[in-house]
Write a structure and sequence with these properties.
The chain has 466 residues and is an alpha+beta fold. The protein has two domains: 166 residues, no CATH class; 227 residues, no CATH class. The chain is built from 17 helices and twelve strands. Strands 2, 6, 7, 8, 9 and 10 form a six-stranded antiparallel beta sheet that branches. Strand 4 and strand 5 form a beta hairpin. The longest helix is centred in the middle third of the chain and has 23 residues. The structure holds adenosine monophosphate and magnesium ion (MG). Magnesium ion (MG) binds next to loops. Magnesium ion binds next to loops.
Length: 466
């Protein structure tokens, strides 16, 4: 018996479309996240059994669930789309964990909805496993993120460039409310819905926030923290559209995302991001742009127009300073120092050296603690000069050890795991999934997962999970 309490389903009917998932032919469990099941108060053995798998595949709706597709809009690559919505995902309901915390349970790949447009409502195993691996690594590395509870295969075929095995991901989130959810009502001039949504988000995520301006301030602070953590891991989200930015501050929508191997600030993986709009170095600026869209949506709720615009603008303009403080704290942790603004050149000089030599982002930082970082540079004298300045700040290795992952889900390893899974071999996925949720442990048996790709292993492009 799952403890559901579906607060989103109690919002006005125009917030969503109620419907059950579309059943699949032959569901089978591919992966189950037992620690997360326990966190949610769910019985992992039940989930792994026939009834549990039927729920995870969308073939059975559990008592207390209220499945629905959420309505939202969004700016995609800067262009506004007034209606997007859950086209291949359904919110099953909100689970109350034993400690009272509330989590959305969402099935991604659950079939067509009124928001599917021309899409088939399905997902294939590749993007499902990519999201599973990356989101679980992010959680283990301390980044606010949606989680992956399970992956099931459907026994159906999904047609993309070629034919792939279908799959459903069970995603867990603080909520799936996005900047684009606000935009959906704002573009319709539906102030009443905006007010209801604002109250809902405050009650759910920011109980201390006062009114729409308080909400805006809180979302901005949360996003500044999250994006700084992405930057500190060399993470590139890849599709930072406003519909892919959660107001909870959790990282959401692991489509064409990837981590850098050799560092360069302009790195982009997504095949559709030809101009590098969402490149690594641009992510904080894009966050500001997205948050400005949220601010615009909230202005009608903030009283007299001129004062509202001024207050919302001030709030958005606070992002750079908040982000900068978070960035300093994160890179300070990575270097084992209490970073002050005077340390900014020290951090930036290291990144510049790394970029010039395409040094491996993860290995440089993980190697600093053990004097192995200089091996990542071709011009070692330049690195030694930098390291001398750094040592003068008396770095704390214990602090660095829990800030610099030894292993990340490297893009080529994700691709290898997906290819093996499609061919029927689950082992590489299971091994990688285990390794990436223990990112700070020194485990020699996983050393191969810590090494960068060989030239013929490099996977330079990623694709949206459609
Ligand atoms: P995303 O790229 O995942 O952020 O998706 C953007 C929009 O396209 C969302 O409204 C999705 O629900 C929708 N979408 C993506 N893939 C599919 C699909 N296979 N079937 C239906 N809708 C989809
Ligand atoms: Mg999306």
């Amino acid at each position: 018996m799952i403890r559901f309490d579906n607060s989103y389903a109690r919002l006005p009917a125009r917030f969503f479309a109620s419907q059950p998932p579309v059943p699949v032919r032959d569901p089978a469990l591919f992966a189950l996240n037992r620690p997360l099941a326990e966190r949610l108060g769910l019985d992992a053995d039940w989930l792994a059994g026939a009834d549990g798998v039927a729920m995870l595949a969308g073939n059975a709706v559990p008592d207390g669930a209220a499945p629905l597709a959420m309505a939202y809009a969004g700016h995609q690559f800067g262009g506004f789309v007034p209606q997007l919505g859950d086209g291949r995902a359904l919110l099953l309901g909100e689970v109350l964990a034993p400690d009272g915390a509330r989590f959305d349970l969402q099935l991604k790949g659950a079939g067509q909805t009124p928001f599917s447009r021309r899409g088939d409502g399905r997902a294939w195993l590749g993007p499902v496993l990519r999201e599973y691996l990356v989101s679980e690594f992010m959680a283990a590395a301390g980044v606010p993120t949606t989680r992956a509870l399970a992956a099931v295969t459907t026994g159906e075929r999904v047609i993309r460039e070629t034919v792939y095995p279908g799959a459903v991901l069970t995603r867990v989130a603080a909520s799936h409310i996005r900047v684009g959810t606000f935009e959906y009502f704002a573009v319709r001039g539906d102030t009443e819905a905006l007010a209801a949504l604002t109250d809902h988000v405050i009650a759910r995520h920011y109980p201390g926030a006062e009114g729409p301006l308080g909400l805006l301030d809180a979302v901005i602070a949360a996003q500044a923290g999250t994006i700084a953590r992405w930057m500190a891991l060399g993470f590139i989200h890849g599709v930072m559209n406003t519909d892919n930015m959660a107001v909870s501050g959790e990282t959401i929508d692991y489509g064409p995302c990837a981590f850098m191997d050799g560092f360069h600030p302009d790195t982009v993986f997504s095949s559709i991001d030809q101009r590098g709009r969402y490149r690594w170095s641009e992510q904080p600026q894009i966050a500001v742009w997205n948050l400005a869209q949220l601010a615009t949506c909230l202005i009608p709720l903030m009283g007299e127009q001129d004062a509202a615009v001024a207050a919302a603008t001030t709030s958005v303009h606070r992002f750079p300073a908040l982000y900068q403080a978070e960035w300093l704290a994160r890179f300070g942790d990575k270097l084992g120092i209490d970073a002050t603004p005077e340390d900014q050149p020290l951090i930036e000089d290291l990144l510049r050296l790394m970029a010039a030599q395409r040094a491996d982002f993860t290995r440089v930082f993980a190697g600093l603690t053990e004097d192995r970082a200089r091996d990542e540079f071709t011009d070692r004298a330049a690195f030694d000069g930098w390291a001398h300045r750094w040592q003068a700040r008396h770095p704390d290795p214990a602090r660095m050890a829990v800030a610099n992952p030894r292993r990340i889900p490297r893009n080529h390893r994700i691709e290898q795991a997906i290819q093996a899974a499609v061919a029927g071999d689950r082992a590489p996925f299971e091994r990688l999934a285990d390794a990436v949720v223990h990112p700070f442990e020194d485990r020699p048996e996983w050393d191969d997962l810590a090494r960068p790709p060989l030239p013929d292993e490099v996977v330079p492009r990623t694709f949206c999970g459609t």
